[in-house]
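Regression test case RT-17, inverse folding.

Input:
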């Protein structure tokens, strides 16, 4: 149960950071254009940000999806399975 919340919180933080990137990059809602608007995506995408640095900005912006997929897979793997029993 707690694992699902961790995935949801991470996904929410990713969406928030992505919205801040879009608002800061295009100057939406009267905001000034800010070249550092994507700074919140960097910690969410570690260590993939450095590996994908040469591919461009949008690939780096999508790099937290790799961590989200890893978290989702770990939660699915660690969750108790319905057909699993402790007796052989």
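Golden output:
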């Amino acid at each position: 149960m707690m694992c699902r919340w961790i995935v949801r919180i991470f996904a929410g933080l990713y969406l928030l950071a992505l919205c801040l990137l879009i608002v800061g990059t295009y100057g939406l809602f009267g905001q000034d254009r800010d070249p550092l608007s994507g700074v919140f995506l960097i910690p969410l995408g570690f260590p993939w940000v450095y590996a994908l640095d040469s591919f461009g900005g949008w690939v780096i912006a999508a790099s937290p999806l790799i961590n989200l997929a890893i978290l989702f897979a770990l939660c699915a793997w660690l969750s108790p399975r319905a057909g699993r029993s402790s007796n052989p």
